[in-house]
Every structure is written in structure tokens, then in C-alpha cells.
Design a protein that fits this description.
The complex is a heterodimer of chains A (262) and B (262).
Chain A lengths: L1 E10 L2 E11 L4 E5 L6 H8 L7 E6 L2 E2 L5 H9 L1 E4 L11 H5 L1 H6 L4 H14 L4 H4 L9 H16 L3 E5 L7 H18 L2 E6 L2 H7 L2 E6 L2 E7 H6 L3 H7 L3 H14 L5
Parallel strand pairs in A: 3-8, 3-9, 6-7, 7-8
Antiparallel strand pairs in A: 1-2, 1-4, 4-5, 9-10
Chain B lengths: L1 H32 L5 H40 L6 H39 L2 H7 L4 H38 L5 H10 L3 H28 L3 H34 L5
Helix pairs in contact in B: 1-5, 2-3, 2-5, 3-5, 3-6, 3-7, 3-8, 5-6, 5-7, 7-8
The chains are: A alpha/beta (262), B mainly alpha (262).
Chain lengths: 262, 262
């Protein structure tokens, strides 16, 4: 359970988040949307305890991540996997070392065992382990890097919650579809909660049933796809205006699949 | 008043920078004494910093030694005191030239490298990824570099001293026509505890200064590639100026303490 209570956050004189509050239940898949610079990625950093708010509380499993000693905070972070924008893979390490990074740092497992697990994880995220395990991240495509980053987060901590920061930005349609399928697979097969930050509206509709729209640091919408479609709040309408046809496309697909009303 | 506003802003920035540098220094010292040691990373940094800087230090030493020997030999010849060239070179190289030139070379090459590397890692969210995996980036990145500097800067200073004295010997023998025996016995005469102590204390202090500044500037860099470039420039400038200022104070203070040993 993740809860943000009246969170205010800023850099210097600039206020990025204003009185942001919402809660995300275990197993839920949520998309946080909004224009660039609206404070979406900041919310993920706050949940992970990388930054702390000026006011308000960030609760993860009823613990305030900004008022915790380092040891317990590390335990909380073990429940959260983060896929950073552009993957944030360690560019001096091979793909295998990246995926097994947590095990290398925090366990005394031999490299053979770490490599075995890394290979399994690479297979899970849809990559050919033999082909990629000894490559450096720079030698992979953007989509492959994103999948390696997801694999690294999964092998690291066996998380209960996955945070994705713009997971499909800059990817071609094929790579985007692969990443979206992987996010859905994780959510469905492992009951991992997903919090996806994106401004790619079409992708947002493919990975979650609940949508939070942020505009200029404020939550202007929080609800289901159907509520979003019918929302007449000016800031939401303005943000969604270019994507109305995508939304109708989603409705059509759901209707054809017999999942209308989901 | 624009002047008052300017002074006010400068004071604010100075206080902000001092506060952050102090916090970072405490963090670095804390990390230095915490339990885990990254031995492999430290050895790798020793190689990169030490062996990588060797050619630079050798070139600096040989040409600086020759230049100074040439200038001094001309002056000493006017007083018929060319036989003192070895003494003067021994004192000036071991106490001043060797430590300062090696320190400045390290500030240019090593400080720039550390700041750029750490800044690029921060810009690519690799530092955040480390924190998310429960790793202290100061312990993992800054401490091995600091230890490597503390070991390698004094070592390379000794090499620089030896090479500079050798360069000066070439000028002494072939230009000033001082006998080789006379030159080396004059050099040995001034190789005493006080000079060696000052000559080794300085690079140890400089290595801490370079490590603090380079790592701090890297961790504090903001604003993408442009920010990393700015931080790197500031790092080199700050390290170089601090080396020159600290050099003066060490000479001034230590000189009066150990006067009896000189």
C-alpha cells in the first residue's frame, strides 16, 4: 500500500508538487499522466525515498519513507523495483553484471549462480541470454535496454511494487509493445503493483485501469478509463484533446474483445 | 540596489555551497569508516589514477627540473656559486616544485576525470539506481577514489621529484659544467628529515583536497551534459587554486614548527 498525503515538493524557489494526495492498493496498476515537467517522475522519486517532500508524508506499507532510519528504509526499498527513464543501466558493466548487480553487491553467491539467475531473468523479460549477457548496455537497442532494466529491478529485490518512469519513451512501436506486454505480464503473473509514469497516452491505456492526471504539480483527475473519457475538467480535457481518437480506439478494442466496462 | 543584490546573492550561494560541501565531507568521512570495503574498485582506481598519470608526471618533472636548473645556473654563475645548484634544486623540488606540480597535474587530469565520470553517472540516474539497490554511492564511488589518490599522489610526487632532479642533473653537467659528483653530493646534503617531511605531507593533504572537491562537484552536478561540463571546469579550478593556497600555508606553518630539522 502506497499513500501520498498532502505532499508539497519543490526545487529552490520552484514548487513542483502542490498538495498531492492519493493511495495505491496492493496489486493495483496505475498510470500517472501529465504534460512534461508536471512533476510525474518526482512522485516516483518520492515513493522510493530518493527525495523528501517539503510538507506531507509518503507512506509505504504504513511507514513514512522520509522519517525512517537507513536500515529499515533499505528493507522498504527491497519491496519496490524502479525502472528509470532510459534504463539507467551501469554502462561500464555487462548486461549480465547489470542484471545480477544486487546479488553481486549484497550476497556472497558465486558468479556462476548469479549468472544462472541473470540468464533466467533475461529469458523472462524476453531476451536471448546467450546473445546479450556479455554485451555492454550501449550495444543494445533502447527497447532491449528497457527490458534489461526491468530484469535488473526484478532480480534485485523480488519487488511487490514496480515503478516505471517513462518506460516506452523513445522506443519504436515493436519495442513499445514488448515493454507493455512485459509490464502487463508482471502485473498479471506475479501480482506486482505497477505505477507507470508516462505522457504516451496510447501506452497508458494499455497498462492500467486507473489513471491519475497531474497538471502543474496538482492532481486534476483520479479515476477509471470511463471516468477519464467523460471528464470535463478543463485541464484534463485540454491534456487529452489530442488523444481522443486513441481513447475511442481503446473503447472499440475493448468492445470487440468483449471486455467493455472494464 | 543592484550591487547589494549581487553581494546578497553571492553570499547566499557561498553559504549554500559551504553547507553542502560540509555535509558531503561528513558523509565521505562517515563512509570511509563504515564497514564495507570495495577493494577491487580501489585497486582499479589506483591503476587508473596512478599508472594513468605516470607519463604526465614524468614529462612535467623532467622539463620543470631542467627549466629551473637552467635559470638557477645562470644566476649562480654570476656569483661563482654554481656548485650550490644541487642544494637549491634539492630544496626547491622536494619542498615546493614536486608536490605542487604533481598536485596541479592531478587536479587537471584526475579531478576532471572523477567529476565528469560521477556527473555523467548522476545525469544518467545511475547514482539513483545505486541508492534504490541499497548501495551507498559515496562509499562505492568516492571512497575508493579518495584512497587511490591518497596512495598514488605521494607516490607519484616522489617519482616526479626524482625525475626533476635527474632533469636538473642534465643541465648541471652539460650546460653549467658542474661535476656529477658535486651535483649529487649537494642534492644529498639537503635530503634531510624536514624537507622530506614537508615534501610528503603536502601531497597527502592535496590528495584529500582533490578527492573532496572532485567527488563533491560530481555528485552536486545538475543540468545534464552542460551541467557536467560546468562542474568539471569548476572542479579543476577549485582544486588548483586550493592546492596553491594550501601549499603556501603548509610551507608557512610547518616551516616554523620544524625549523630545527631544516
Amino acid at each position: 500500500m502506497i499513500e501520498l498525503r498532502n505532499v508539497h515538493f519543490g526545487y529552490g524557489d520552484q514548487l513542483v508538487l502542490r498538495d498531492v494526495s492519493f493511495a495505491i492498493a496492493d496489486g493495483e496498476a496505475v498510470v500517472i499522466m501529465g504534460p512534461s515537467g508536471s512533476g510525474k517522475s518526482t512522485i516516483l522519486r518520492l515513493i522510493l525515498g530518493l527525495d523528501c517532500p517539503r510538507q506531507g508524508e509518503i507512506m509505504v506499507d504504513h511507514n513514512d519513507v522520509c522519517r525512517m532510519p537507513r536500515g529499515p528504509l533499505r528493507e522498504i526499498r527491497k519491496k519496490i523495483g524502479m525502472v528509470f527513464q532510459d534504463g539507467a543501466l551501469f554502462d561500464s558493466l555487462t548486461v549480465g553484471e547489470n542484471v545480477g548487480y544486487y546479488l553481486i553487491e549484497h550476497t556472497k553467491l558465486k558468479w556462476d549462480e548469479i549468472e544462472r539467475r541473470a540468464r533466467m531473468m533475461l529469458g523472462f523479460v524476453g531476451l536471448d541470454a546467450d546473445e546479450v549477457i556479455d554485451k555492454l548496455p550501449d550495444q543494445l537497442s533502447g527497447g532491449m535496454q528497457r527490458r534489461v532494466a526491468i530484469g535488473r529491478a526484478l532480480l534485485s529485490t523480488d519487488p511487490k511494487v514496480m515503478l516505471y518512469d517513462e518506460p516506452t519513451t523513445g522506443l519504436d512501436p515493436d519495442a513499445t509493445r514488448n515493454v507493455i506486454n512485459l509490464i502487463n505480464k508482471l502485473h498479471d503473473e506475479r501480482s506486482v503493483s505497477s505505477i507507470v509514469v508516462t505522457h504516451q497516452i496510447a501506452d497508458a491505456f494499455a497498462v492500467a485501469g486507473r489513471f491519475i492526471v497531474i497538471s502543474f504539480g496538482e492532481v486534476v483527475f483520479d479515476g477509471s478509463f470511463e471516468e477519464l473519457r467523460q471528464c470535463r475538467e478543463p485541464k484534463v480535457a485540454e491534456f487529452l484533446a489530442p488523444f481522443r481518437s486513441s481513447m475511442e480506439g481503446v473503447i472499440q478494442r475493448k468492445f470487440v474483445d468483449g471486455n467493455a466496462g472494464e | 540596489m543592484p550591487v547589494i543584490r549581487l553581494v546578497n546573492n553571492w553570499l547566499k550561494n557561498f553559504a549554500y555551497e559551504t553547507q553542502h560541501l560540509s555535509f558531503f565531507s561528513l558523509r565521505l568521512i562517515g563512509a570511509f569508516f563504515s564497514r564495507r570495503w570495495y577493494v577491487a574498485e580501489t585497486m582499479e582506481q589506483m591503476y587508473l589514477i596512478g599508472v594513468g598519470s605516470l607519463y604526465l608526471v614524468v614529462l612535467t618533472g623532467i622539463f620543470a627540473g631542467q627549466g629551473f636548473a637552467f635559470a638557477f645556473s645562470m644566476e649562480l654563475a654570476d656569483f661563482g656559486a654554481k656548485n650550490y645548484l644541487g642544494r637549491i634544486m634539492s630544496i626547491s623540488i622536494i619542498r615546493e616544485l614536486g608536490p605542487v606540480l604533481t598536485g596541479l597535474m592531478f587536479a587537471a587530469r584526475v579531478a576532471a576525470g572523477i567529476t565528469a565520470e560521477v556527473g555523467a553517472m548522476k545525469s544518467a540516474h545511475q547514482i539513483d539506481a545505486m541508492v534504490a539497490f541499497g548501495i551507498d554511492p559515496v562509499k562505492k564511488i568516492a571512497v575508493p577514489r579518495m584512497i587511490a589518490l591518497v596512495v598514488m599522489l605521494p607516490t607519484l610526487t616522489i617519482i616526479c621529484d626524482a625525475i626533476a632532479l635527474l632533469g636538473a642533473w642534465v643541465i648541471a653537467v652539460f650546460v653549467a659544467h658542474v661535476t656529477s659528483t658535486m651535483y649529487w653530493s649537494a642534492v644529498r646534503e639537503r635530503l634531510i628529515f624536514g624537507n622530506i617531511f614537508i615534501g610528503l605531507l603536502k601531497p597527502i593533504v592535496f590528495s584529500f583536497v582533490i578527492a573532496f572537491i572532485a567527488c563533491y562537484k560530481g555528485f552536486a552536478s545538475e543540468g545534464g551534459t552542460k551541467g557536467v561540463g560546468r562542474a568539471t571546469t569548476e572542479s579543476v579550478v577549485m582544486a588548483s587554486i586550493n592546492i596553491l593556497i594550501i601549499n603556501f600555508f603548509i610551507t608557512r606553518v610547518i616551516f616554523s614548527w620544524i625549523k630545527g630539522y631544516l
